[in-house]
Structure prediction request, 152 residues.
Amino acid sequence: MFALIDCNNFYASCERVFNPNLNNKAVVVLSNNDGCVIARSNEAKALGIPMGAPAFEYKKLFDKHNVHVFSSNYALYGDMSSRVMNLLSEFSPDIEIYSIDEAFLHFKGFDHFDLNAVGFQIKKRVIQGTGIPISIGFAPTKALAKVANRIA
Prediction:
């Protein structure tokens, strides 16, 4: 059985960890040179801000809705990713880091475990240890785990 763990709105979530006043507020993170939107909080998504949106075209909307706009901080995101991945490795020795905010865990030999309960334990551990919210999908293959994560 595989689990795909995906950090929710990762770059925006990282910014929120260090500034909790941003919780429940629209947050966007911009690409290098502040050109395009590369991460959005759920509140920013609800305003209709698309991924890849040129920042200059959305400046009025950002101002109108008090959207909190950040330049990307890859040192921060890399550090937070390492923290998340270290916590995930506590749950299975077989971890495959898929991207900065995603990893597969292989649960071979966990046939007699309640993976639903394990999933909740992982979510709790990651949020307690890092403040980063995650989604988890379990399935017998990596591709299906990705689909299950999307549904989650």
The radius of gyration is 17 Å. The chain has a mean pLDDT of 94. Strands lie at 2-7, 27-30, 37-40, 68-71, 95-99, 102-106, 134-139.
